[in-house]
Amino acid sequence: MLKALPARFLVSPEPGGRRRSPRPRSLRPISAALMTNPAYFEVGRLLGSYGFMNITSYSSSQSGGFPNDAVNQDLSLGYSPEEIERLRVQDVGEGQVKIRLYEGRVVQGPLKGTQTVFKVYPGAIAGASEANLMALNELRTHAFLQSDARDICENIQFLLGAFETATGEQWLAFRDDGRYSAADYAKITSERQLKERPNFWNPYDRAYKLELRKYFVLRLLNGAMCGLVHMHNHDRLHQSLGPSSVVLNTVAEKNGYYLLPQLRDLAFSVDIGYSSMGVGALSDGLWRRASAAGASTPLEKRAFGVADDIYGAGLLIAYMAFIPFCKAGIMDGISLQRLLENTFRLDIYAAREYESLEQNIYMV
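^ that's the sequence the OP posted. Answer follows.
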């Protein structure tokens, strides 16, 4: 059950979805009643539903697409065959828990009028014990990351409050700083390219649009990495990082200067503080993988967890470097991951050379 948060957690930056400057801001406290009482919120229409993506297992890296050992040796990056075999690639799967999203707003208190997005976890009546653990973990993670009003990261979604309904559903209320995800942006952009026609009146139009797209993607990735670094600096892993877990306030490339990417979906976040290492039902899989990889001491397990998140960040970078620049249907996230892990065995230089040779197929 979600209970009232300690008073030191109950602070919030200025409401609204506008781009904020880096200068110090005056932060207003929020009462405990506002944070946990559903009467302070008004629920609007259903926005949709989705499942969480989480690293479920690791499988041995397999070489595919190269016919001889000589090429495989070239792609070994200086590692021995034994070390290459120990290299594991992430198998990412969608969990059983399906959450719903609703729009809404605050109707009472100092933040009256603030637009919100509600994330609803299924209740105990539906037999969703895992959902309760995920909701509680997400609540605790956001509360911890927001515990210091002077150290709140604008690249992490801001939690306004939480409450439980009579049916056991867990409702988390987030400030509505954007409803699009990086996956939405990539999909919209790739589909738009199917309809675009050459502009013979302006020969620089294509180059201009490409520069806008590059700038937008770079700002998106920069914001996502800043959020991840903030989490790691505060002893928290994300463990569900991907294009769907980065929320955007705009998908218009011409507004790239005002883009504010934020990390969301912290339900699988893991505390990697030395006193909490190995604790938590949702992190059992991570520590089993760490042990299987040879990590035995707390320092080694912590390093493994951080490297695990960074690997996910690398896949996100690869996704955003390809998909928004491809026409719809040519490449998808799963195919790209298999190409990098199986065919190129994580050799980025070989992948870049291949992409440059095949740019007429993959790129616009």
